[in-house]
Amino acid sequence: MHSGHQTRGAGRGVPPRRGAMEGSAWEAACRARGLVEVREIGRGSFGTATLVRAAGGDHFAMKVVSMDRMSTLQRAEAEEEAKLLASLTHPFIVRFVDSFSEDGHLAIVMEFAEGGNLHDRVLAHRAAKRPIDEVQIVRWFAQAALGLEHLHCRRILHRDLKSQNILVTGRGDVRIADFGIARVLDTASVEGDYTEELKENTTLGSPGYLSPEIYNDTLYSFASDVWALGCIVYQLAALRMPFEARSLPALALKVTRCRVPALPERCSKELQRLNQEMLSHDRARRPRA
């Protein structure tokens, strides 16, 4: 099964049939904000991603989702993504610019990462049969880990970390993006206790990056985000996913029962050890972000 396939919650709504900025009310709302469409940069079940130019000449990415085709839960998830992103300020998390609703659509305007994403880098290096330099891997990992630490310190589970959601800027730095199924855990109670994990009735996220406890118990925690980051590190080093299968049941079986494969021999012992710790089947043994 391809690791990019997603289960419920990873894609929300149906792509708008028209251009992202077409339609009188919608076009007027964009013009009022000084936004001019440059080109479409992505399309998926969530809607469209469009490169827009602001009045000052800066370029931003605008994610547009069709709210009128969504369920009540899907609308809430889309609105929560905008609120959550607006609350985050960190050098390695994509920067929120604006959000607005008009004509049955929700738009989230954010920083544009002109360098694509880490999945693009993996595909390019695999096609060229050229490994990614370990120094670069460690740099990207360190930046993503700092961004993830910021989320976890704010008691936020990302729940859909994958190489497609780690964007790359023109300077080569990374940004964690796509908070569509992120969840803020319960805050501290009077007694000082707080929720460290979240039990769901439905599996959320991208299959290739889900941890064993998600497949076994649909249990999400900070440790499951760390597992996903470990999968990304493995993907960067090996140019493939640590677990691959032709079906979701077969993939779940591999993730929950098979030993984690070692990184290529060219990788340092330190990176080998770190990746094994991040992909430990015992979530208590995984390092914290």
Describe the model.
It comes from Zooxanthella nutricula. Residues 1-20 are annotated as: Disordered. The protein has 289 residues and is an alpha+beta fold. The protein folds into two domains: 24-111, Phosphorylase Kinase, domain 1 (2-Layer Sandwich), CATH 3.30.200.20; 118-285, Transferase(Phosphotransferase) domain 1 (Transferase(Phosphotransferase), domain 1, Orthogonal Bundle), CATH 1.10.510. Helices cover 34% and strands 19% of the residues. It is built from eight helices and eleven strands. It has helices at 24-32, 72-86, 118-128, 134-153, 212-217, 222-238, 248-257, 269-278; strands at 36-44, 47-53, 59-66, 96-102, 105-111, 156-157, 166-168, 174-176, 183-184, 197-199, 219-221. The strands form four sheets. It has a five-stranded antiparallel beta sheet, sandwiched between helices. β7 and β8 (174-176) form a beta hairpin. α4 (134-153) packs antiparallel against α6 (222-238) and α6 packs antiparallel against α8 (269-278). The longest helix is centred in the middle third of the chain and has 20 residues, at 134-153. The radius of gyration is 19 Å and the shape is globular. The two termini are 28 Å apart. Residues 1-18 and 188-195 have low confidence and may be disordered.
Task: Furnish the topology, listing elements before pairings.
Blueprint: H1 24-32, E1 36-44, E2 47-53, E3 59-66, H2 72-86, E4 96-102, E5 105-111, H3 118-128, H4 134-153, E6 156-157, E7 166-168, E8 174-176, E9 183-184, E10 197-199, H5 212-217, E11 219-221, H6 222-238, H7 248-257, H8 269-278
Antiparallel strand pairs: 1-2, 2-3, 3-5, 4-5, 6-9, 7-8, 10-11
Helix pairs in contact: 4-6, 6-8
